[in-house]
Amino acid sequence: MLRFLIRRFLALIALLIATSIVTFLLFFAGPSDVAANSCGKGCTPERIQQARVALGLDKPLVVQYLEYMKGLVAGREMGPPSGRYWCSWPCFGTSFQNNRPVWDIIKTALPFTLSIAIGAAAIFLIFGVGIGVTAALHRGKWPDKVAVAISSLGVSLPAPFIGLLFLWIVVSKWQLLPYTSNTVTSPWNPDPWTWFKNYLLAWLTLALIFGANYVRLTRANMIETMGEDYIRTARAKGLPSRTVTFKHGLRAAITPVVTVFGLDLGALLGGAVLTETIFSVPGLGRTAVNATFNQDLPIVMAVVLFSAFFIIFANIIVDILYAVIDPRVRLN
Amino acid sequence: MTGAERVAIDVEAVTAEPASDAFLSVRDLQVQFPTEDGIVQAVNGINLDLARGQTLGIVGESGSGKSVTSQAILGLLKGTSAEVTGSITLDGQDLVRASEADMRKLRGDVMSMIFQDPLSSMHPFYRVGDQIREAYLVHNHVGKKAAHQATVDMLQRVGIPNPESRYSDYPHQFSGGMRQRAMIAMALICNPKLLIADEPTTALDVTVQAQILELIKDLQREYNSAVILITHDLGVVAETCERVLVMYGGQCVEMGTVDEIFYHPEMPYTWGLLGSMPRMDRKRQARLQPIAGQPPSLIQVPKGCVFNPRCRFTDHVPGNACREVRPDLVATAGSHPVRCHIDSGDRKRIWSSEIAPKL
Amino acid sequence: MNRRRVMVATVAGTAAVALVAACSSSKNNGGGATSGAASSAPASAGSAAGLGKVIQPGYTTKGGTVNILSDANFEHLDPVNNYVTNSGELGRLIYRTLTFIEDTPGQKPAIKPDLAQNLGTPSSDKKTWTYKLRTGLKFEDGTPITSKDIKYGVERSFATDIYKDGATYMTDLLENPNNYAGPYKDPTKDLAGVQTPDDNTIVFKYASPQPESDWILAMFYTAPVPKAKDDKQNYDFHPVSSGPYKISSYTPDKSLTLVRNSNWDPASDPNRPALPDSFAQTLGIDIPTISQRLIADQGADKNAVTLENSGAIQNADLPKIKDPSVNARFTNGATPCVDYEVLNVQKIKDVNVRKAIAMAINRQAIATVYGGAIFGSVIDTIVSPSIQSTVPNFAAPTLGLKPTGDPAAAKSMLNGKSVTIHYGVANTSVKQKTVATQIQNDLKAAGITVVIDQIPQSSYYKTLRSDSPPDMARAGWCWDWPTMAATTPPVLGGNADLTKWNANNFSMTDDTAVFKKIATAVSAADSSGLNDITNQQLSQVWPLISTISSNDPNVVGSNIRNAGVSTIFGEIDLNTMGVQH
Q1: Which of A137, A167, B21, C317 has its CA 20 to 30 Å from the CA of residue B240?
Q2: What is the per-residue pLDDT for B280?
Q3: Which residue out of A233, A321, A324 would a mutagenesis test of the B interface target, given it has the greatest number of B Cβ atoms within 10 Å?
Q4: Is B353 exposed, middle or buried (0-12, 13-18, 19+ CB in 10 A)?
């Protein structure tokens, strides 16, 4: 098990480095002129050249990449010759727009994305799996039919539609919930009830969309699993039906759900762009979109790296969980 | 006096009441499954009695209803769409009318089952020892340590070496034979009075088969359990059973002692079974004789004798009886119950002159 | 001036603009389409669009908080870099400048002294301008403001390697014999173009005559910056206040709060009424949501305004604005900006072809793409309606064009000549791509083939200025101060030594005689003359065809008073605003 963990951790590092190289090349060796980007409309050729020097773009690509990576782990010095400053680790550079350290921007945005991701994930996991199990156990009867109907809805309706509908009806028309505020970042800030009210609609929007998948997956897997021979054995042993369903059935059915959950959570942590935009939540997704429109490359690159990290990390967790759930996967 | 005038004892009429000394008594068991295509008559009137210490073999092809019969006895059909009628009496208790909660108390404790494929029948995610211990704990109010010890003892008893360390292994870490032994341990840990073994050796090597069958017999002697051994393999039946019930199309078509069935079979289907079985102890006479045709559809059960579409001997019966009238399970004097329209004397003659020499 | 934020707002919020027909005004005379009538800017033609209106004027009570709802963070509060409209409104509250452009909605803009006691005293050649400062001026911490602090602010704008986003007039126009490059590179060098003989006097020395020096020095590079507090790139987050309000808290991307600066002396500042006690800005709200909240006017939103482009108003909101209760809170005003299509004379060498193109395109349809009369109107000149009043006897050029275009006439003008045009469009703007496609169709009907080339947004202006620019492309000009000299010379004039076209003259005209005429008219402060040259160029040389003069419509909360659109920034004016409390 330890060897397995070490191997996966090394794979994580290797993948991150590969991602960083590809991202770096995409942005800094790509067709768009980074120096012109950072300079805006009033950019004369002289200013572009100054910007080029200030950003270190006149150095060879390899050097630029290594300096970027050094900044990530140890910090580096940045800026034009007469205005040098220290960018402490993890240094993702500074925003082209207003010179704010990108790490600060990400740190500010992260709690919002985490609030959305964790809340939504909890809801769609618990309800998605719960409804899926219920549907599987009452196959053909009304709980099953209702579950399939809701999940079809969730799969077919796009996020903007559901989100805007919620926003219009619940917040604007009925005024049941307040417009989101950018001061609510966690259950401790300011308090759990405010946090709940602030994010509830965003959670429900995502839960409906993501949860649909879990309902169908869990239902299908449960139906298949409950037909397995070892379920028959469990019942033949005289085990109570709750034990049969959950300890024997669900645990076996859950492995594909775990895989999907890991990927979904990884993606959500990278920022649910549409939901964040609709509900005006300034998380990573929205930050990335605004940065893209403003051609603010350091921010975009940092968010890409973060997203990659979250997804790769989630994958590894999923692998580990797989090995925990299913002993056949563990290599001796 | 022709055979037809001999006093025929209609087994089904005489034995309408459960035999008082039988541990397990099944009367007119019918199991129906409603499907989109129609009602599947999986079991169509089975009767059997079994005393403790006895072994009954149920023999038949796939689809003959033997597994459904055993599931019905264990009550595993409760809560499904299956409709179970008739009576199943275990030690005086009516199982058909019993509630699911009552059945759960019996399952694994008073009666238990061994399944065909031990790899798929054990949960791949839990340790073998834990699964066995689980069976023990649900029926015995003891602490985990005591249950653990009981499990280890049982593993030892079924012949698994190093039981303490093998307790912590997973099913995929066992060989086929050891796995089946563990399965047996799981079934027997609560000393059940009735053991149903559904094709216990089908998935195993021939060499291991013998060991497993030996083990089952051993344990039966030790615990004085009633054993039903379900199989399609006549060789297994010959090894272990005292009495045999031949099933076809959801019905019992012949029932008797092992000797009666093997040496004096009277039903054409049984003849077919014997004929299609390769034998090492006889000189090879001719090719193996498979039974022509397919097992019957249980949705459209043939009118009349359920075997008639495949029977080579329907011309021995006058008129259309085979196709029109369902034969009753009748035991003629000096013979065992057979469900067939052919006159009993006729059957014996056909057996000794036509069938037996070719085996 | 930089209206760069147009891209962000419109792409993010109104991707479906093209699909929604303008439902505001069905009449084609909305908002000054024939600019002859536009000299009375708030008059009949514009009132349908609410231009020049002030909501609940005449309010004088101090107190209350104005809530500003905003989307993405503004770029710079550091005065040296503050060159974008929405941070301009905030900047004007926080720091004072040497002079001040008074832009009461509906009236002609005027230049007033701010830190200066009076407007400047020029030398006879108009190259040297002397200003005396008011006395008793203080920063927010009580330290006195001296001429040296203003000079330091100007010096910073020379450090172009660090400060890249500000206006470039100081580096462009001041004399700089020793190649001064900012206060950080070589502290021993001095900026010769700005002199401070004493703490209360500041002298500006230009390389060429600048009759409009007063206007030029109204921009934020003359905001005083205390050297001791200058931490370069971080000054953005806490500029020191010299104005009526100071920053009490600023969390980037989240919120900005301005409260009264107790060291600001109202008696010294006749330009700023400073009615509200504080301004509380919330950032990160999605633009359609901002518009919804302003229209809904609930709770704290009764005190709300926005600085987003076009007031964050979406096409879908226009019917709601007709509702009387919303309409009472609605105002509109011309921005400093005029959009036009560049007809590069180096690429399209035949003037008749250029004229034919101008004749063929349907500018009314472009206005529709922009959202209809509320958002902007067709205009024939590059002179924004907001400054037409500063030109004596203003007249627009006689172009003889139909606002809806006339492809047939264009075709006959071409006389069978086969023409192919390469039209460049920024690849990220849905709106501009829609316009490009429409122009393509218009010109096709005139027998001109248009090839649309996509240009990466980041290098759009670079491409337009390069050696291989597109034949035709959209550009826009927003004047930096409201006179002709801030419009005609950059768009149609020459560079510093008049040998080649100005960097903002995307049409790349190269008639040095015209450049000289323009420069002479500037030196003589002859706005009429400049307008005549403009009209002559537009109607005879056809280097461009003006399309839309854009407006900034706004809905404000019901507690807001004195709300009008500032002419300089084209945003709701925070300076004159009051709030009922």
Answers
A1: B21
A2: 67
A3: A233
A4: exposed
Of A40, A179, A286, the CB nearest to C164: A40
Distances, alpha carbon B130 to alpha carbons A11, A248, B166, C367, C571, in Å: 35, 12, 11, 77, 74
Other beta carbons within 10 Å of C95? 29
pLDDT tens-place string over residues C216-248 = 999 999 999 999 999 998 899 999 999 999 999
Please report the DSSP string for A29-82 in residue order: SSSS-HHHHTT-TT--HHHHHHHHHHTTTTS-HHHHHHHHHHHHHH-EEES-GG
Q: Given pLDDT bands bounded at 50, 70 and 90, which one contains residue B20? A: low
- Interface predicted TM-score (ipTM) of this complex, two decimals: 0.83
> From CA B211, how far away is CA B207, in angstroms rounded?
7
Please name the chains neighbouring A, where neighbouring means 3+ C-beta pairs under 8 angstroms.
B, C
Q: Which secondary structure element, helix H or strand E, spans residue B195, and what is its range?
A: strand B194-198
- Residue C179: CB partners within 8 Å, gap ≥ 6? none
Q: How far lies C185's CA from each of A49, C160, C167, C194, C227, in Å?
A: 17, 11, 20, 18, 15
8 A C-beta contact, residue B193 and residue B110: yes
Residues of B in contact with A233 (CB under 8 A): 113, 115, 121-123, 186
What is the spatial distance between Cα C190 and Cα A281, in angstroms, rounded to a whole number? 48
CB neighbourhood size of A326 (10 A): 17
Mutation site, C10, C77, C87, C161, interface A, largest A CB count within 10 A: C161
Give the integer Cα–Cα distance in Å for B250 and C418.
Answer: 90
pLDDT tens-place string over residues C47-79: 556 788 899 999 999 999 999 999 877 778 999
- d(CA B251, CA B69) in angstroms, rounded, equals 10
Give pLDDT tens digits for B177-207.
Answer: 899 999 999 999 998 999 999 988 887 888 8
Q: At A282, which amino acid appears?
A: P
Question: How does pLDDT run across A92-148, given as a tens digit for each residue?
Answer: 998 887 788 999 999 999 999 999 999 999 999 999 999 999 999 888 889 899 998
Q: CB-based contact (8 Å) between B144 and chain A?
A: no
Q: How confident is the model at residue A52 (pLDDT cuts 50, 70, 90)?
A: confident
- Between strands C472-478 and C419-426, the pairing is parallel
Give per-residue pLDDT as tens, C415-453.
888 899 999 998 878 889 999 999 999 999 999 999 999
pLDDT of residue C295: 95
User: Are B12 and B71 contacting, i.e. CB atoms less than 8 angstroms apart?
Assistant: no
Nearest CA in chain C to A42: C165
Peptide bond into A282 cis (omega under 30): no
**Average pLDDT score over residue span A282-290:** 89
Which of A237, A252, A326 has the CB atom closest to B107's CB atom? A237
Please give the angle made by the CA atoms of C465, C467 and C470, to the nearest 5 degrees. 70
List the single best residue of C70, C289, C302 to mutate versus A (max A Cβ within 10 A): C289
Residues A259, A266: Cα–Cα separation, whole Å = 11
C-alpha distances in Å from residue A215, one per residue of A45, A118, A252, C84: 58, 19, 16, 50
Contacts of C48 (CB under 8 A, 6+ apart): C25, C27, C30, C31, C373
Q: In this structure, how many other beta carbons lie within 10 angstroms of the beta carbon of residue A324? A: 13
The whole-number average pLDDT for the span B344-359 is 82
C46 vs chain A: nearest CA distance in angstroms?
A: 31
The model's pLDDT over B251-300, given as tens digits with 9 standing for 90+, comes to: 999 999 999 988 888 888 888 888 777 766 666 656 666 777 777 778 87
CA distance C136 to C145: 8
Interchain pair A175, C458: CB under 8 A: no
CA C12 to chain CA mean position, Å: 21
